[in-house]
Amino acid sequence: MRAPSSNGHPPGRDRRAVLHPPRDGQPRPDGPPPRVAVIGGGIAGVAAAVALAERGVHVQLVEREPQLGGRLRGWPTTLADGSTVTMSRGFHAFFRQYYNLRALLRRADPLGRALVPMADYPLVDADGHRDTFQGLPRTPPWNALAFALLSPTFGWRDMITGINPVAALPLLDVSVPEVYHRLDDQDAMTFLERVRFPQAARHLAFSVFSRSFFADPRELSAAELITMFHIYFLGSAEGLAFDVAAEPFPQALWDPMADYLTELGVIVTTGAAVREICPGRERRFTVRFGNETAPDTIVADAVVLATDVAGLQRLLAASSRVGRACWRARIMRLRTAPLFLVSRLWLDRPVHPDRPGFLGTSGFGPLDNVSVLERFEGEAARWARRTGGSVVELHAYALTSDAQQGKRRLVEELHRVYPETTAATIVDERHELRADCPLFAPGTFADRPPVTTPDPAVVLAGDFTRIDLPVALMERAATSGLLAANALLARWGLRGHPLWTVPIRGRLAPLRAAARFAKAH
Question: Distance (Å, rounded) from C-alpha 463 to C-alpha 37?
Answer without folding.
Answer: 19
